[in-house]
Amino acid sequence: MNTVSVDFFENTAPIVVTYLSQEFTEALKTRIRNQSRLSMVRTDADAAFQGRITGYSITPTAVQGNDRAGLNRLTITVTVTYKNRLDPKLNFEQSFSRFEDFSTTAGPIQAQEPQLIKSINDMLTEDIFNRAFANW
């Protein structure tokens, strides 16, 4: 295998963060560039990633005495289709989901969101990379 393509991951989650699609797509490309010797191409790749962001949610995980969330959880879910033209037995379509817990005492979600998204993207792209290429 010499080449790989990564299509843009559209955000179809009920809650849309405007920059999430771009951030995730670039994080996956960066992971592949940094952990493999594959060349990134737009078409006719030996392997191809497609998908969409299907979930983005913030839920309380710990409630304080005043009925306020002391700890919240940001969860991001992506559905990935991987096609390996050289070995179709390795093709898959799978959902990946990761989360990060955060406290509202550290500031509003808007202030914490970029770092939380980066951390979750790191975990998601590692899971996706390992699922696609762990048999190397």
SSE topology:
Blueprint: E1 3-6, E2 10-11, H1 20-35, E3 39-40, E4 47-63, E5 69-84, E6 92-102, H2 109-133
Parallel strand pairs: 1-3, 1-4, 2-4
Antiparallel strand pairs: 4-5, 5-6
Please summarize what this structure is.
InterPro entries: LPS_assembly_LptE. It holds the Pfam family LptE. This protein is an alpha/beta fold and 136 residues long.
Radius of gyration: 17 Å
Overall tally of domains: 1
Task: Report the count of strand segments.
Answer: 6
Q: Please tell me the CATH architecture by its name.
A: 2-Layer Sandwich
Distance between the termini: 10 Å
β-sheet strand percentage: 35-45%
Order of helical and strand elements: EEHEEEEH
Give average pLDDT, whole number: 93
Largest sheet: 6 strands, mixed
CATH level 1 name: Alpha Beta
